[in-house]
Amino acid sequence: MTLTQQIHNLVETAPTDLQISIAALAPALEQAAIELKHLQYFVAVSSTGQWIATTLQNRQSRQEIKVIYCFAKVGDLQVFYEEATSSAELPVIDLLFQLTALDDIDRLVFFDSADANQGRNVSKLDLQRSIEQQLKSAATLPPDNFC
Hints:
It contains five helices and six strands; from the N terminus they run H-H-E-E-E-H-E-H-E-E-H. Helix 1 runs antiparallel to helix 2. Strands 1, 2, 3, 4, 5 and 6 form a six-stranded mixed β-sheet that branches. The chain has one domain: Uncharacterised protein PF11572, DUF3234 (Trna Endonuclease, Chain: A, domain 1). The longest helix is centred in the first third of the chain and has 16 residues, at 19-34. With 147 residues, the chain is α+β, with helices and mostly antiparallel strands.
């Protein structure tokens, strides 16, 4: 599924009263997705059906962040996560959209290979700022430009 198809699907499956808003923020999601190499990624899922998050701590500042690792290949995920009972393959647009709604998650880290040192970070804060800018821009456009 292309990014355009993923966005269309996200808008079409949203509640009717939210479709215009989601269509307005879609360009920000697409811009973040363009920087990634794959259209779909795998996330580890626990036995309770939740995405597995990892807490990272900066030793110097003692600041903690929670991340969800996303892998291009399920085999890479299985090597990284021994505790994962299963995995879910998700479109990249859905992953980015979900990031905006996950209260306790600070970022997604996307891995295109088995090298865990080569991840690409997508910060929730940066994505939210991009969405805010997109919504401000969209507010000045006529309504027929959203879909």
